[in-house]
Amino acid sequence: MKTIWIVGAKGRVGKALMRLLDERQYKLFETDIDDVDITDQESVNSYMRITRPDVVINCAGLTDVKRCEMYPDEAYHVNALGARNLAIEVDAYEAKLIQLSTDDVFGSGLTAVWSEFDHTAPRSVYGKSKYAGEQLVSSLCRKYTIIRSSWVYGIGKDYVSRVLDAAEKGGELRVSASEISSPTSAAELARAIRVFIERDLYGVYHVTGTGRCTRFEFAKTILEYAGKSDRLTLLSREAAEDLRPMYSVLNNMMLRLDHVYEPMHWKEALREYFDELEGAER
Question: In what residue span(s) does the RmlD-like substrate binding domain sit (predicted)?
């Protein structure tokens, strides 16, 4: 039975992993900032020494793009140094580190999908700090898997909940018609992570829903699947800020080459998400 430590277990992906992983198959440890502060290497070392995990999954991170711009030291402290501390301790205990990253490590200008082998050029502090975390993990840990994803949604506050909250209030919502990427459900991401737990696969992998859409199309589909299309008027707008890549569709090339996992189309995964929400409300 493998021992798994999920760091950032209260986030969207952390919650999805806790729901997916069977405690009869894995010995699970879940922590969040109140339990273990990953920016404190001694705290990480102490927890590793007590739990001795085989696999550590780092779902923690400062993901608020605007906050990262306002407080860059905090962004690098969590996204880069936190990842560094985990990498050092995971390597010392000869475990495996699964590090979650983002499409924001890429810049703009490309209109083809980004593969794991394309040049990174993050523009925002968020993207730069996450890429710094990637670099530290790859240089300090022998057994690592870096998973980049995009537009992740799940249980908690996210783009889906924002659109639904706006629908409850009614009126209008301005949504970008120029940002393009691939929405990814936390449940789908968790299923892919489970494969990486079991298989000796290392390096950088992209894991996103298949297909692509604009933020406007994503919001429109959210309202349609929630049965609230008549509750909110969507108005298209151009992206107001130059922080996130305008086109960040990721190519799941390494998933295909290593026969890891084939994610669902983003619309199919979104439908599954709403079906699960309806089932939970019954």
Answer: 3-277
Q: Please say whether the dihedral angle defined by the alpha carbons of residues 51, 52, 53 and 57, taken in this order, is positive or negative.
A: positive
Query: What are the distances in angstroms from CA 117 to CA 31, 70, 124, 145, 212?
Result: 33, 31, 21, 15, 20
pTM of structure? 0.95
Question: What is each CA distance from 212 to 38, 150, 250, 268, in whole angstroms?
Answer: 34, 11, 9, 12
CA angle 212, 229, 169 (to 5 degrees): 110
Structurally, how many domains does the chain consist of? 1
What does the pLDDT look like over 14-42, one tens digit per residue? 999 999 999 889 999 999 999 999 999 99
Residue 6 Ramachandran class (φ > 0 left, ψ -120 to 50 alpha, else beta): beta
Q: What is the mean pLDDT of the chain?
A: 94
